[in-house]
Amino acid sequence: MEDARLGVLGAGVMGTGIAVVAIGHGIPVVLVDVSEDRLADARRRVDTQLRHARLMGVVPAEGPVAALATATELEAVAGTTAVIEAVTEDAEIKAKVLGEVSRLVKTGTPLVSNTSGIPIGELERFVDRSDELVGIHFMNPAYLITMVEVIRGDRTSDETMTAVTGLLARMGRRGIVVRDAPGFVTSRLLHPMINEAARIVAAGVATAESVDDLMRGCLGHPTGPLRTADLIGLDNLADALRMLWERTGNASFQPCELLLEKVAAGHLGRKSGKGFYDYEKVLS
């Protein structure tokens, strides 16, 4: 990975955050998305996040920033040394994209799915070389959080794990390796807690602010579950909960009505300006 060149698929919240981490640590990136408008917006967000990351000391404050190229065609990643898929959390879409990319990159190129809970075993049958597929769950915001969950599939090779470990080290990230399962570790624990917090609010037991204050002050949660939900995106959270519910049959993963109502109303959290909290007042 000394001469790494990273392909990132998807210029959304996670893709741009991952790109910031890479270029901030001197790794050139090719960022791919479906439209030039999305890519132009992504470039602006990358510039802003890179400045923030440097101020926070999570990427080097000195030294050159690597190049960021953008493209609307998957073929642009053909010459990269690793590819991270960061498209929407939908198994069918991820499988399609990973399958297409696996036929473009050369043998020995790690294929990484950035997923919060879709089992790697579900995706591996769509790629040409399943031994080169691995999961990495970057936490949001990816450019600030320095620990990641690394998911080793049943067919992931030692060579792939070594390459991915080396890439993460170059990106200043510490990876904790876990075995493949729906939700892995973090989502399996965090998402039902958020879901139950929303149920508590819906039942009138406490406000969102009170739930978060108690979780921070009594149990040491850094932000509180509902502020965390707003950061994740309530639509993303609902999708992840449905995925876990379908794959485990555990009723605690069934998205609660309040969460679904907020998603239907377009109140998706920070990215929409309103979720469990109102961010429009802060931004205005």
From TrEMBL:
Keyword Transmembrane helix part of the UniProt annotation: yes
InterPro entries named among the record's database cross-references = 3-OHacyl-CoA_DH, 3-OHacyl-CoA_DH_NAD-bd, 3HC_DH_C, 6-PGluconate_DH-like_C_sf, 6PGD_dom2, NAD(P)-bd_dom_sf
User: What Pfam families does this protein's entry cite?
Assistant: 3HCDH, 3HCDH_N
State which pathway it belongs to. Answer: Lipid metabolism; butanoate metabolism
Q: So where does this one cross the membrane?
A: 6-34
Q: Which UniProt keywords apply?
A: Membrane, Oxidoreductase, Transmembrane, Transmembrane helix
The cross-references to SUPFAM superfamilies, in alphabetical order and at most eight, read: 6-phosphogluconate dehydrogenase C-terminal domain-like, NAD(P)-binding Rossmann-fold domains
The 3-hydroxyacyl-CoA dehydrogenase NAD binding domain, residue ranges: 6-180
Q: Which domain of life is it from?
A: Bacteria
List residues of the 3-hydroxyacyl-CoA dehydrogenase C-terminal domain: 183-279
Q: Which family does it belong to?
A: Belongs to the 3-hydroxyacyl-CoA dehydrogenase family.
Output this protein's name: 3-hydroxyacyl-CoA dehydrogenase family protein
Species source reads: Streptosporangium amethystogenes subsp. fukuiense
Please spell out the taxonomic lineage of the organism that makes this protein: Bacteria, Bacillati, Actinomycetota, Actinomycetes, Streptosporangiales
